[in-house]
Design a protein that fits this description.
By secondary structure, the chain is an alpha/beta fold. It contains 17 helices and 21 strands. The strands form 6 sheets. It has a 6-stranded mixed sheet with strand order 6-5-4-7-8-9. It catalyses: a 1,2-diacyl-sn-glycero-3-phospho-(1D-myo-inositol-4,5-bisphosphate) + H2O = 1D-myo-inositol 1,4,5-trisphosphate + a 1,2-diacyl-sn-glycerol + H(+).
Length: 586
């Protein structure tokens, strides 16, 4: 029995049982029973299960999968004497990482030989910040973590130090403490290709004199050496491919004079985005101390930056260092602040453009098809609005629906919007590049994500059970007086028509909840759909406790009964917590 003390009384509860749920037991019996009633799943019955339930198609795939299951069972001594898989062995294999919802052996499978503009790219914003946008520290540590997590676009803001003789990285005109540029460059070099061999794009926003530009150019060349990709000409007719740029670091920026002339681009009037908050649910709160500190700073100064160094701006406008300019492989074009002009496609030259979150959202209403056409050849980066001082994020699907490749995320701003970004880039082996759906590259008929689209497929999701919290959390973590009361929320994030969220019933007082709950989701654009899964602990007296989450690309889900690992709020995998779910497409 499990006991909990309440004042001077002890409450006793039935111990947690990790036996298969009734639905899983029925599946086992359906195949083991047809195999002669031996109480074990023989090889032929296992093959039938793999073919009929798990969706393994060809004979070779079925044989390979059967060998893998039997090897797992033999390794863990789960085979019955005389052969055959016991119900315990069957259940343990279903819950193992080898049976994950995303195939762990698939790796990179998209065609990586297309121009960069054909891919969504895992993109960070203010990659050096450790917390909020106004008063947190700057460090090379967040850069290293982002690269290890698969991020392929790192942003550095370059400013002169107080003596005007060296370069620092910080969020300019704020109280963020600086970090040395050389530390950041060395960190990029060390971690660039730890998790992915495909190119790292280093976007620089510089506010430097020509003298300091020359210093930066020397630092970049000496640090990166042969890793640095140098373009043969300033005007590229088409971008190279990720495969062409494998193992390379690319510099993307625009001359400082243009930065100064358009410096208000990061300070444009920003309006709140029209997101489906009723579907999303309230955001999981960030670190309370960080939120409070940022709020105090913002209220005191009304979201304004500290006074600019006008003398430095005048010096910067005197010229651009040629050596520094030669390092720029992907040019960032100067905006004309006329969307008709900004989105014109030059057939002779490709480039990159940046838009603030609010400006972009307005553009999707008036120039949706032009954005899609622009991103078929050029790169578009969207960055969060400046009022997101706590480093929160916007809905990245707002960008992906129209083909924007670089939807920049504050990697230190944990929450549902960042979970979507992490979910998207679990696709294609987690390499940081995901090939855009073909309809976003179709030049004959422009995709309109706001139009009424027919249902293309239906995804049936069954949530059987969950386990692992009892190993990863203290007995009183969720409730001091009893075992937790878990429920699951399951839904889709995608085009507006597909976006929805549903939930199971609450299972009371149980560390291993069994829901056996089935949902169905009609999908108009499965190629842009992400499966959202969250588990919470119900609390009648205060806000429900968070118990884990994941987000998975629907187009890469494996059919059948699969193991789904859950992650903490900060995106780190929970050591033991998994759900057992079934996915069926019709």
């Amino acid at each position: 029995m499990t006991t909990y003390r309440v004042c001077c009384f002890l409450r006793r509860f039935r111990p947690a049982s990790n036996e298969p749920s009734e639905a899983i037991g029925d599946v086992f019996e359906a195949y083991a029973g047809a195999d002669g009633g031996s109480g074990a799943l023989g090889e032929e019955a296992l093959r039938r299960f793999l073919r009929e339930v798990q969706g393994e198609a060809g004979d070779d795939d079925v044989e390979a999968a059967a060998r893998e299951v039997l090897a797992f069972a033999a390794e863990h001594r789960l085979l019955k004497k005389g052969g055959g898989l016991t119900v315990e062995g069957f259940h343990r294999w279903l819950c193992s990482d080898a049976n994950a919802a995303l195939n762990p052996r698939r790796g990179v499978h998209d065609d990586m030989g297309l121009p960069l503009s054909h891919y969504f790219i895992y993109t960070g914003h203010n990659s050096y910040l450790t917390g909020n946008q106004l008063s947190s520290g700057c460090s090379e540590a967040p850069i290293a973590k982002a690269l290890r997590d698969g991020v392929r676009v790192i942003e550095l803001d370059l400013w002169p130090n107080a003596a005007k003789d060296d370069v620092e990285v910080l969020h300019g005109r704020t109280w963020t403490s600086p970090v040395d540029l050389m530390k950041c460059l060395e960190t990029v070099k060390e971690h660039a290709f730890v998790s992915s061999p495909y190119p790292v794009i280093l976007t620089l926003e510089d506010h430097l004199t020509p003298h300091l530009q020359a210093k930066v150019a020397k630092m970049i060349k000496e640090t990166f050496g042969d890793l640095l990709h140098l373009s043969e000409s300033e005007a590229m007719p088409v971008f190279p491919s990720p495969e062409d740029l494998r193992g390379k670091i690319i510099i993307s920026t625009k001359p400082p004079k243009e930065y100064l002339e358009t410096k208000s681009s990061k300070e444009e009037a920003q309006n709140g985005s029209a997101e489906e908050e009723s579907v999303w649910g309230d955001e999981i709160p960030d670190n309370k101390a960080q939120v409070a500190t940022a709020r105090q700073v913002s209220e005191k100064d009304n979201y304004r930056y500290v006074e600019e160094d006008e003398e430095m701006e005048k010096k910067v406008q005197l010229g651009v260092n040629g050596e520094y300019k030669s390092l720029i492989s992907i040019s960032l074009t100067r905006r004309k602040h006329d969307m008709d002009q900004d989105l014109k496609v030059d057939p002779e030259k490709v480039s990159r453009m940046s838009l603030g979150e609010a400006a972009y959202e307005k553009a999707t209403i008036t120039h949706g098809s032009e954005i899609i056409k622009f991103t078929q050849r050029n790169l578009l980066r969207i960055f969060p609005k400046t009022t997101r001082i706590t480093s929160s994020n916007y809905n990245p699907l707002m960008g992906w629906r129209y083909g924007a490749q670089m939807v920049a995320a504050n990697m230190q701003g944990h929450g549902r919007k960042l979970w979507l970004t992490q979910g998207m880039f679990r696709a294609n082996g987690g390499c940081g590049y995901v090939k855009k759906p073909d309809f976003l590259m179709n030049t004959d008929k422009m995709f309109d994500p706001r139009s009424k689209l027919p249902v293309k497929t239906r995804l049936k999701v069954t949530v059987y059970m969950g386990d692992g919290w009892r190993f990863d959390f203290r007995k009183t973590h969720f409730d001091k007086c009893s075992p937790p009361d878990f429920y699951a929320r399951v839904g889709i994030a995608g085009v507006v028509a597909d976006t929805m969220m549903k939930e199971t019933k609450v299972i009371m007082d149980n560390w291993i909840p069994t829901w056996d709950h089935e949902f169905e989701f009609p999908l108009s654009v499965p190629e842009l759909a992400l499966l959202r899964v969250e588990v919470h602990e119900s609390d009648n007296h205060q806000k429900d406790d968070f118990a884990g989450q994941t987000c998975l690309p629907v187009w890469e889900l494996r059919s059948g009964i699969r193991s789904v690992r859950l992650y903490a709020r900060d995106g780190e995998a929970l050591r033991s917590v998994k759900l057992l779910m079934r996915f069926e497409f019709s």
